[in-house]
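Below is how a single chain appears once it has passed through the pipeline. First comes the sequence as given, then the structure the pipeline wrote out for it. We keep one example in the README because the format questions we get most often are answered faster by looking than by reading.
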Amino acid sequence: MSFFEGTSSLRWYALKVFYRRYAAICATLNRDGVEYFIPPLRPDCMLMFVRTTSDYIAFLQTVLLEKGRVVCEPGAQRPAYVSDAEIEMFRLVTSMGANEFEVVDNLSSDRLKDYCRVIEGKWKGAEGFLARIRHRKRLVVTLGNFIMVAATDYIPIAHLERISLPLWKQGA
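Resulting structure:
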């Protein structure tokens, strides 16, 4: 029985990678033909994302051991997944380069305000929540309800359009 029966069951899952273990995990994923994405984050934020089936992610949990762990939903032992749309938004923001965004740790969800789309400037097309971070409003991109990973640098309010929370985000 294959782990990859049909692409409709493929989802993105987050992995927390232990120090200096990317190569070993990537070797396993390459061997098994699994798509993955390693975002250009700060060195101490060791995350990667794999696009696979729930069966393969369960298998991966058993073989990661000292290499890393699958990120689970808060308060549950169930692997947390990220929608394709969220991964694409995250890739858009992180593709700007490591100096153009920052990782946000310990930002409570009650600090996330309006959901906006950037309509002008270098962040055009990015979507996320407005949050005040160090006295400046920033656009925060979230992944599911378990990771708040990137906040853009300052974006003028004139470059933002408030929009309704998209359907793919309402399930998070």
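The chain has a mean pLDDT of 83.

See the next section for the split statistics.
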